């Protein structure tokens, strides 16, 4: 067996484990199926992409340890930010949804799922959940045009940035306090 083959097997097994947790989470499943209907996507395919994009120690678990939650939120914030910033992934392929469109939709599902953690585990000043980004996500669900999300993300991260990198800003402002 090659290293690539072993890595692929581990990745697939990890996604299957995440899918089990995902399918046991009624809120997440309603979000996935609702977003799939709104965007005209296949719900089972979207489930796969949500599981793939989910962070380590997925937030879909109700029993993550406190330290795992912090790492999981940081991981999720970075993954969701990267996926949502690539608005061309949706806008360029929305006429015939391909893998990048599903990845973008999965990021929206995870964003919506995590939005409820703002003020609890996630500080209110996290740029990823700024009111302008929230408005752009709602606009996307209505219009199916993604570029306003990227513009809103750029704007809020740029404002928060000062002398830090985007990643440092996101991890600093979105990490649960220790």
Which SSEs are present, and which pair or pack?
Elements: H1 3-23, H2 26-39, H3 43-53, H4 66-85, H5 88-91, H6 99-115, H7 131-143, H8 147-161, H9 166-174
Helix pairs in contact: 1-3, 2-3, 2-6, 3-6, 4-6, 4-9, 7-8, 8-9
Explain what the structure shows:
With 178 residues, this protein is mostly helical. The protein has one domain (3-174). Helix content is 70%, strand content 0%. The chain is built from nine helices and no strands. Helix 1 (3-23) packs across helix 3 (43-53), helix 4 (66-85) crosses helix 9 (166-174) and helix 7 (131-143) packs antiparallel against helix 8. The longest helix is centred in the first third of the chain and has 21 residues, at 3-23. The protein starts with a helix and ends with a helix. The model has no long low-confidence stretch (mean pLDDT 85).
Radius of gyration: 16 Å
Strand content: under 5%
Structural class: mainly alpha
Order of helices and strands: HHHHHHHHH
- When the domains are counted, the total is 1
Number of helices: 9
| Structural shape | globular
Largest sheet: none
Oligomer type: single chain
Contiguous low-pLDDT stretches (5 residues minimum) are none
Quote the distance from N terminus to C terminus: 42 Å
Number of strands: 0
Share of helix, binned: 55-70%
Rounded mean pLDDT is 85
Offer a quick outline of the entry.
With 178 residues, this protein is an all-alpha fold.
List keywords for this structure.
178 residues; mainly alpha; globular
């Amino acid at each position: 067996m090659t290293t690539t083959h072993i890595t692929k097997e581990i990745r697939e097994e990890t996604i299957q484990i995440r899918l089990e947790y995902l399918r046991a989470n009624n809120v997440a499943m309603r979000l996935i199926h609702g977003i799939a209907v709104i965007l005209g996507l296949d719900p089972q395919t979207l489930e796969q992409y949500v599981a793939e994009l989910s962070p380590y120690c997925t937030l879909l678990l109700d029993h993550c340890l406190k330290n795992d939650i912090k790492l999981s939120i940081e991981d999720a914030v970075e993954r969701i930010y990267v996926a949502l910033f690539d608005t061309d992934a949706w806008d360029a392929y929305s006429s015939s949804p391909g893998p990048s469109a599903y990845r973008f939709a999965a990021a929206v599902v995870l964003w919506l799922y995590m939005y409820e953690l703002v003020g609890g585990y996630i500080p209110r000043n996290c740029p990823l959940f700024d009111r302008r980004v929230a408005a752009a996500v709602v606009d996307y669900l209505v219009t199916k045009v993604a570029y306003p999300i990227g513009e809103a993300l750029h704007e809020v991260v740029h404002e928060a940035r000062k002398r830090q990198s985007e990643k440092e800003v996101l991890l600093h402002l979105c990490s649960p306090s220790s």
